[in-house]
Amino acid sequence: MADLVNPPALRAVIADDQALVRTGFGMILAADGIEVTAEAADGAEAVAAVRRTRPDVVLMDIRMPRMDGIEATRRILADGGPDGTRVVILTTYDLDHYVYAALTAGASGFLLKDVTPEHLVAAVRLVQAGDALLAPAITRRLIERFTHREEAGTAALHRDLSGLTPRELEVLRLLATGLSNAELADRLVLSPTTVKTHIGRILSKLDLRDRVQAVVLAYETGLISPGGGDP
């Protein structure tokens, strides 16, 4: 009963090659009751730390020695990751061209390194709860900038959308244009609960972790083209 009243603390790993960044983020998380189970100075250390401590969330820098954050993310999330571990990418610059690669590797979103303490804590808790960190409009902006249509045909070959109903395809297409759940509900004249149900079924059918991956997939398969229109 005590475990139900006091659920286990959220656990995080911080991977960054700058010690000051790791220390600062660790202090912010600890002050809000989030346990930092390990710190890592490169991708290889991050992979080992995750396997050893099995955290809920990993804050992952992209540019690190030995192994970068993209490869580390791929390895951590292979086969679903340990116990549903989620990765949030840390980047210095908005729309860093590595971020798209990290999202396709399975990351649940990204944070700029100048994030406020409040936003950092909120982001970690949001991702741990199973949501995607990126606002849909930011996701779309990333993908529109870095998705190349010549890659889309290849990507489409390994992900079949035929299992989706016409309504689910419509929801996925609108989701990829940057609409929030509330906006989707208004556009489709559905309740917010029904929209969430449709999105949940889409993620389940396509074996996707969250809506970020759904938006990436919509562009990669050519369901929607950069600019928000149908191909």
Q: How many angstroms separate the termini? A: 54 Å
Order of strands across the biggest sheet? 2-1-3-4-5
Which series of helices and strands comes N to C? Answer: HEHEHEHEHEHHHHHHH
Rg over CA atoms, rounded to whole Å, is 18 Å
Extract low-pLDDT stretches. 149-158
Number of helices: 12
Structural class: alpha/beta
Q: Estimate the helix proportion, in percent.
A: 40-55%
- Apparent shape: globular
Describe the 3D structure.
With 231 residues, the protein is of the alpha/beta class. 52% of the residues lie in helices and 11% in strands. The protein contains twelve helices and five strands. It has helices spanning 2-5, 19-31, 43-53, 69-77, 97-104, 117-128, 136-146, 149-157, 166-176, 181-188, 192-205, 211-220; strands at 11-15, 35-40, 57-61, 86-91, 109-112. Helix 4 (69-77) runs parallel beside helix 5 and helix 7 (136-146) packs parallel to helix 12 (211-220). Mean pLDDT is 81; it is low at 149-158.
